[in-house]
Automatic annotation (TrEMBL):
Protein name per its UniProtKB record: Type II secretion system F family protein
Pfam family, any one: T2SSF
Lineage: Bacteria, Pseudomonadati, Verrucomicrobiota, Verrucomicrobiia, Verrucomicrobiales
Source organism of this protein record: Persicirhabdus sediminis
Membrane topology, from the record: Multi-pass membrane protein
PANTHER family: GENERAL SECRETION PATHWAY PROTEIN (PTHR30012), TYPE II SECRETION SYSTEM PROTEIN F-RELATED (PTHR30012:SF0)
GO cellular component, one term: plasma membrane
Keyword Cell membrane (UniProt): yes
């Protein structure tokens, strides 16, 4: 159990201070919430601080007699504390590398504290005072220092760590502008957790197909390098023996790969390097982003994920009082696909010229009719944010179904490919064996 000192606002507007005992900070925040208090500041008290103060007050004579060694102990404690702090200090310009799990934890804890009523800097200070050392402590420290010096939260994230990425930072900027940073971070934490769970499911689902692929390739290599050559020699040595056409093709392919495999590998690596350089070039990013949307199955997933992010972000911004035009600009900045962003530019331009939001979406030709119909309902009822949230839920459900379809198709496709490859090898072997037997007869 730990002792927390708090400063909070009561329901009547009065400021209350005091101490509470709880297992950890989230538990302390829940206790204050149950009491009807809105936390302004919540700090953990050092262990033994209360007991030390009481002892000093009750035994002043003893404190005087033991006054000499106290400075030495205090200096040692201060030195060790200073050394510990120096180990944790983030150097200027240094960037911290975070794992995905650490980013999710940072987002969840910060959104929970902001939702409980803490201001941004005290919340970061609380995370900086974590008992465990690690990268999260360093990130909280660096971000808090920049925020204290006047930087925006999103800018501070970019400066402290590259692990958050442009999308995360742009969404944080949108949350700051709308005053809904806690909501934006909460949704971002949910999105990151969902994405992490999906990646884990994909990895687990691909373990068995990957094993099948490796086993199939291994069997094919054994067939082409050992069994088929031996069988071919047997057929050739048999009077009137003739090698089947399929076996001839397989042997020719085996000889070709054995002779030129280094050159083939070099060509493949070179093509991949050239493709990556072309894809990453600023002049080709628009073309590549458009091409990704046309890839079967994957393109639909990318589109659905954009619709969910677009609708949720826009609903939060509009719901927190931002003008529609400014909300669209912030949502566009949080969109990483340049092809989609170009259509967002068209929507912003038309809305700025006085057209309705729904008609602007319709003119671009990119947004689905269901989304536009729900926007029309929101415009007519005057509750655009509610309509956008309902649309986001619909597209989130569609995204889940698309991902399930992809996962369901992976296994049959791999099995069919392996069955075709092994079946072809087995057919050639059996055909050659029957032909050899018929020649012997």
């Amino acid at each position: 159990m730990a002792v927390f000192k708090y400063k909070a606002l009561a329901r009547d507007g009065k400021v209350e201070t005091g101490q509470i005992t709880a297992d950890d900070r989230p538990s302390a925040l829940k206790i204050l919430k149950k009491r009807g208090l809105q936390p302004v500041n919540l700090t953990a008290q050092a262990a033994g601080a209360t007991a030390t103060a009481t002892t000093e007050k009750s035994t002043p004579a003893k404190s005087k007699t033991k006054k000499a060694p106290a400075p030495a102990k205090a200096s040692k404690a201060a030195a060790s504390s200073t050394k510990k702090e120096e180990e944790k200090t983030l150097e200027a310009g240094e960037k911290v590398k975070l794992k995905k799990a650490e980013i999710i934890l940072f987002t969840e804890e910060l959104s929970e504290m902001l939702r409980a009523g803490l201001q941004l800097e005290p919340a970061l200070k609380s995370m900086e005072n974590r008992e465990e050392l690690g990268n999260l402590k360093l990130v909280s420290q660096g971000v808090r220092q920049l925020v204290r010096d006047g930087s925006n939260f999103s800018v501070a994230l970019r400066k402290v760590s590259d692990s958050f990425g442009p999308l995360y930072c742009n969404l944080a900027a949108a949350g700051e502008a709308s005053g809904a940073l806690d909501t934006i971070l909460e949704r971002q934490a949910h999105y990151l957790k969902t994405l992490s769970e999906l990646q884990s499911k994909v990895v687990m689902a691909l373990i068995y197909p990957a094993f099948l692929v490796v086993a199939g390739i291994s069997v094919s290599i054994i067939f082409m390098t050992k069994l088929i050559p031996q069988l071919t020699k047997l057929i050739v040595s048999t009077p009137g023996g003739e090698i089947p056409t399929g076996a001839k093709i397989m042997m020719a392919a085996s000889d070709f790969f054995q002779q030129w495999w280094m050159i083939i590998l070099g060509v493949v690596v070179t093509v991949l390097i050239i493709f990556k350089a072309w894809k990453d070039a600023p002049a080709n990013r628009l073309t590549w982003d458009e091409t990704k949307l046309k890839i079967p199955l994957i393109g639909k997933v990318i589109e659905s994920r954009f619709y969910v992010q677009f609708l949720e972000t826009l609903a939060n911004l509009v719901g927190n009082g931002l003008p529609l035009l400014r909300a669209l600009e912030l949502t566009r900045d949080a969109t990483m696909n340049l092809y989609i962003r170009s259509h967002m530019d068209e929507v912003i331009e038309m809305v700025g010229d006085g057209r309705t939001f729904s008609r602007s979406l319709l003119k671009t030709g990119m947004f689905p009719p269901l989304l536009i119909d729900m926007v029309v309902v929101g415009e007519k009822t005057g509750k655009l944010d509610h309509a956008l949230r309902r649309a986001a839920e619909r597209f989130d459900s569609e995204l889940g179904k698309s991902l399930q379809r992809i996962m369901a198709l992976i296994m049959p496709i791999v099995l069919i490919m392996m069955a075709g490859m092994i079946g072809m090898m087995a057919y050639l072997m059996v055909t050659a064996i029957f032909q050899t037997i018929s020649n012997l007869q």
